[in-house]
Amino acid sequence: MSFDEIFLNCDATEMARLVREKQVSARELIETAISRAERLNPQLNAIIYWLKEEALNLADKVVPDAPFAGVPFLMKDILATVAGTPQVSGSRFLLDNVADFDTHITTRFRKAGLNIFGKTNTPEFGLTCTTEPEVFGACRNPWDLARTTGGSSGGAAAAIAARIVPAAHGNDGGGSIRIPASCCGLFGLKPTRGRVSMGPRIGDIMGGLVVEGVLSRSVRDTAALLDVISGPEPGDPYYAPPPDEPFALSAKRKPGRLRIAASTLSFTGVPVHDECKEAVRNTAKLLEGLGHHVEEKAPDISGELVSQAFIAVWGAGCAAAIDGQSKLLGRKLDPGKFETMTWALYEMGKQVGASDYLMAMFVLQGLGRELAAFLTDFDVWMTPTVAEPPPVLGTFDSPKDFPLQGLFRAAAFCPFTGLMNATGQPAMNVPLHWTADGLPVGVQFVSRYADEATLLKLATQLEEARPWADRLPPVH
């Protein structure tokens, strides 16, 4: 194959095999990835920092038997750190901040042979569902450059969809892996809470809302990468029960006949676009054809109560993150260094009292019990991933006279994903639907706590029944 064919058709697993069998070299792969990125990034604005020299130097030191030996890779510029590189989190306040250590997940990525050559665009502090930070500018969707990639792992999603890399790092606090996966036509799995260590400096964030992970084009890549990054590290406050077998092996097994609940109504009552409903309905027919039992059913959730609790924790988490960075770096806070919505959320978060926060966590933990009970009768719950196809850029802007407008608009766009951050359950976006004008619309699947295996088995079956990897966006 030519290198164009490799990057268009090969996932990370296949690229690593080509390196191990010496059909291509790690240097050839990274040089091609950098070349593709340099050509496409001016259109996409997916990569904000380059680590070209470091990656080229590492290409000649690849350990051949590493599971992802020589595969080009990108890190999201938030939470996980790469020593000696900028860690800006999409904020002017951190513009000259440089990380002084590797997080555990970064170390594990490196040990697996992944070659990191850049960092991807993300909204300020990962607080919203679109990747349009003022400091770096909007990341644009390869399927339509006028539309959002989703967020907060939008830069990662754009780079994968455009065939710059086969997989990339992401994290998810309210849907930040699944939303961009839906917007960009990718597979995106949010792991179980506690599955991946956030150390060494962070135990958890916002009571466990945030998890680390990856986005990819193939199910087997995500499964194998989850094997790489899973497992506790010393000092973790808690961790998920280990799987019965490696995720990569589970992903190859048949799922059996599953009991699947399906719903298209949002628990908050916001309208859901017909295309998103159709994605679920068509997938239900596909699942029934594969032998699964599908039933229209949803848990009984108090939208107002859960939304109030989630925003209290989200606001308090925003305030804690900003205050923490201020103290860590010895910098005085200046509202002019933050985006309008971020500062408004910070001020709101400062008003959340200790008892308010604990009561909010009580509500969210109660939601976890409700969904756990619901999933005693079902193996999987299926919903739209988002409530509408990818909106145009600027949709989530917050004017000075309505500083939280972007937050309210985000809540209308992604009412389905944050539930699983609250409960800690694994959830995935599967790219199973495209609109008539060529925009991807994903379907979300949720399983029981610590049961990523069922999701991966089902995803592999769906991938075989309705392949998506050969769909190419206009920009690639």
Description:
By secondary structure, the protein is an alpha/beta fold. The protein has a single domain (3-465), classed as Amidase signature (AS) enzymes (Alpha-Beta Complex), CATH 3.90.1300.10. The protein is built from 16 helices and eleven strands. β2 (72-76), α5 and β3 form a beta-alpha-beta unit. The radius of gyration is 21 Å and the shape is globular. The two termini are 18 Å apart. 57% of the residues are buried. The mean pLDDT is 97.
Q: What would a concise description of this structure say?
A:
The protein is an alpha/beta fold. The protein is built from 16 helices and eleven strands. It has a single domain, classed as Amidase signature (AS) enzymes.
What descriptors fit this protein?
8-stranded mixed β-sheet, 39% helix, Amidase signature (AS) enzymes, 12% strand, 11 strands, alpha/beta, 3-stranded mixed β-sheet, 476 residues
Q: Write out the CATH superfamily name.
A: Amidase signature (AS) domain
CATH class: Alpha Beta
- Whole-number tally of structural domains: 1
What integer is the average pLDDT?
97
**Content-based structural category:** alpha/beta
Residue stretches low in confidence (pLDDT < 50, at least 5 long) are none
Strand order of the largest sheet: 4-6-5-10-11-9-7-8
The largest pleated sheet is described as: 8 strands, mixed
Count of extended strands: 11
| Helical proportion, percent range | 25-40%
Shape: globular
Number of helices: 16
Q: What is the C-alpha radius of gyration, as a whole number of Å? A: 21 Å
Order of helices and strands: HHHEHEHEHEHEEHHEHEHHHEHHEEH
